[in-house]
Write a structure and sequence with these properties.
It is built from twelve helices and 13 strands. By secondary structure, the chain is α/β, with parallel strands linked by helices. Bound molecules: zinc ion (2 copies).
């Protein structure tokens, strides 16, 4: 079995200097884990790369989740190399209509507005987001699964459900290796649901080689522990700063600073991140919400 990591750069307007690692597995079948963002340059880049690796057919494109930087080139590659595209059923709505990837913000709209963000501010970000979304090329055909098991030569590849970053995030495991998408990124990772994320990180620790989609790869168990500690530090920080009560917007500012994110997809991430921390702390009885203020009831975890 041969595993090749290919790094697909982000087009500049979507995140300068960033990239998605995708993984090609060659073993009787040809499997590509994720695809990276679509652009004219990236199409040429991936085509040349696959040619170099002597690949003329791809059997499967396995998506770790339904985010653009993972499925962007899927439609193009399916056309050129004939791959079947597979995704976990809880993320399939994003491939049907990418507006579903941002419905989280509609569901939490009240919380965001009463948290101190103006309707204009949020709708400006959302409009930018929607104009980005309208340019996206969704894969024309794909299949959704709940559990995936593929026999490839003498190896077995299995999907492992790792919700937290998105509901339908998965890792693909072979032996002691796992291709883990965005569940764990060195430093920090964007989350929708904190409790699920923490559970998913536990599952990653069973593997010796953890191949994420961004930044350092592979990650080790100790990198996962560092990430857990980072999350705990964030929770502790929130408990401290909300001692006398604080609005959502002020908490976000305190943690992330005044930095304005030009990329609309990024602009909403800090808000989502802080809300997921707060909802977890509320469930656990560490903070309460009084009107528009979040107030910690304990100073430490
Ligand atoms: Zn993602
Ligand atoms: Zn990603």
């Amino acid at each position: 079995m041969m595993i090749t990591s290919i790094t697909i750069p982000f087009p500049e307007h979507l995140g300068k200097g960033e990239a998605t690692h995708i993984y090609l597995i060659k073993n009787e079948k040809i499997i590509l884990i994720d695809t990276g963002l679509d652009s004219k340059e990236n199409r040429i880049f991936i085509k040349n790369k696959l040619k170099e690796l002597d690949i003329s057919v791809i059997d499967y494109i396995l998506l770790t989740h339904g985010h653009l930087d993972h499925f962007g080139l899927a439609d193009y590659l399916q056309n050129e190399f004939g791959a079947e595209i597979l995704i976990h059923k809880l993320d399939k709505d994003k491939l049907e209509d990418y507006r579903n990837a941002i419905k989280w913000f509609d569901e939490n709209y009240e919380l965001i507005i009463e948290g101190g963000y103006s309707k204009e501010e949020i709708s400006e970000i959302k409009n930018k987001l929607i104009s980005t979304i309208e340019m996206i090329k969704l894969p024309r055909s794909f299949k959704a699964y709940e559990n995936l098991r593929l026999v490839i030569g003498e190896k077995v590849l299995t999907s492992i459900h790792l919700p937290g970053h998105t509901q339908g995030s998965v890792g693909y495991s072979i032996d002691d290796k796992i291709f883990s998408g965005d569940v764990a990124i060195e430093g920090s990772t964007a989350i929708e649901n904190f409790r699920k994320e923490i559970n998913s990180l536990q599952k990653l620790k069973f593997f010796n080689y953890i191949y994420p989609s961004h930044r350092k790869t592979p990650l080790t168990r100790s990198d996962i522990e560092k990430l857990e500690n980072h999350f705990i530090d964030r929770l502790e920080e929130i408990l401290k700063i909300t001692k006398n009560g604080m609005k959502l917007k002020d908490i976000v500012r305190k943690i992330y600073g005044e930095k304005i994110y030009e990329n609309p997809i990024r602009a909403l991430i800090p808000i989502r991140q802080v809300i997921s921390y707060l909802l977890y702390l509320e469930e656990e009885g560490y903070v309460i919400k009084k009107g528009y203020l979040w107030i910690s009831t304990k100073e430490t975890l």
